[in-house]
Write a structure and sequence with these properties.
It is a single chain. The chain is mainly α. It is built from 5 helices and no strands. Helix 2 crosses helix 3. The radius of gyration is 26 Å and the shape is rod-shaped. One of its GO terms (biological process) is monoatomic ion transmembrane transport. Keywords: Ion channel, Ion transport, Membrane, Transmembrane, Transmembrane helix, Transport. InterPro entries: K_chnl_dom, VG_K_chnl.
Length: 139
C-alpha cells in the first residue's frame, strides 16, 4: 500500500502522471479506431487485445491489421508505447536517486553541524553521534 502511494506521489510531482494519462487516452482511442476500421476485429475486446499485443511489442499474430489506417494507428501506438516504457521508469528512477542524494546531503550536513558544536551537545546527542560513527566505520 505504501509503495503504491509513493509511486502515485512521484508520478504526480514529476509530471509523469500526465504522460500516463495521455497514454491511456491514446490507447483507448486507438483501440476504438482499430475496432472501427479493421474488418478482422469484430469486438471491442478483440481490439483491446490487439492493441495490447502491439503496445507490448509482443505481436502474437492471432489478429492483424490489414487496412492502411489500422496499420498506421498500430505504428503510432507502438511508438507511444515505447516512449512511455522508456520515459516513465526513467522519471521515477531519477526522482528516487535525487531524493536519496538529498537525504544523504541533509544527513551529512546534520552530522557536520553536530561535530562543529560538539561541546554543546547533550549526552544523548553524543551517544547518537557515536552510534552513527560506528555504523559508518562498519561500511
Amino acid at each position: 500500500m505504501k509503495k503504491t502511494r509513493l509511486i502515485k506521489i512521484i508520478l504526480k510531482r514529476t509530471g509523469a502522471l500526465k504522460f500516463l494519462t495521455t497514454y491511456i487516452i491514446i490507447f483507448a482511442g486507438v483501440s476504438i479506431g482499430i475496432w472501427i476500421v479493421e474488418p478482422n476485429i469484430k469486438t471491442p475486446i478483440d481490439s483491446v487485445w490487439y492493441c495490447f499485443s502491439v503496445a507490448t511489442t509482443i505481436g502474437f499474430g492471432d489478429i492483424t491489421a490489414v487496412t492502411i489506417l489500422g496499420r498506421a494507428m498500430s505504428i503510432f501506438l507502438s511508438i507511444c508505447s515505447i516512449l512511455i516504457i522508456a520515459v516513465v521508469p526513467g522519471i521515477i528512477t531519477s526522482y528516487y536517486i535525487e531524493s536519496t542524494k538529498l537525504k544523504e546531503k541533509e544527513s551529512i550536513a546534520k552530522f557536520l553541524d553536530d561535530l562543529e558544536h560538539l561541546p554543546e551537545l547533550s549526552k544523548e546527542d553524543l551517544q547518537s553521534l557515536s552510534v552513527k560513527v560506528k555504523k559508518f566505520n562498519r561500511k
